[in-house]
Amino acid sequence: MFGLTTLGAIHTAISLVAVAAGLIAFIRFKEIPPGQTLGKVYIWATVLTCLTGFGIFQHGGFGKPHVLGIVTLAVLALAAVAGRTALLGRASKYVETVSYSLTFFFHMIPGVTETFTRLPAGAPVFASPEDPALQKVVGVLFVVFLMGAALQVRRLRAGGAGASVRGTAA
Questions:
Q1: What's the predicted TM-score (pTM) here?
Q2: How confident is the model at residue 165 (pLDDT cuts 50, 70, 90)?
Q3: Taking all residues of the chain, what is their mean pLDDT, rounded to a whole number?
């Protein structure tokens, strides 16, 4: 279906769980809180998305999507360290929050790329991942990420609800 292997379909399903959990968390909490059920679902689905992605070689060998998976795992690890230790001092809460949001942006890159280079079937919106119009879409998504991250930082500086959401389980 849509040129997906069995592993590709499983990978896509897991990534959709992560994206849904992330969207709901942003709507509910204005961040991805790792101490909440939604945050945990997002984080673990993102880890599984990265791991399953390492076995997909639709475009040849090891490539940009695999690098993005490694970077995503590294940013998740940075967020976890920032949230669980005092290693980064007062910057910890900012690094944690913005890092989880950055991983959500990372989901958007292959999400829009794979979706719009495959759909609609037979006449996809973009010809390839290198299509300049697609790169502009990713650029717009990056600007949206930057605006959201700025709002998150501003909210944290003001002592927003994020601090009370972090440690509680839902």
A1: 0.91
A2: low
A3: 92
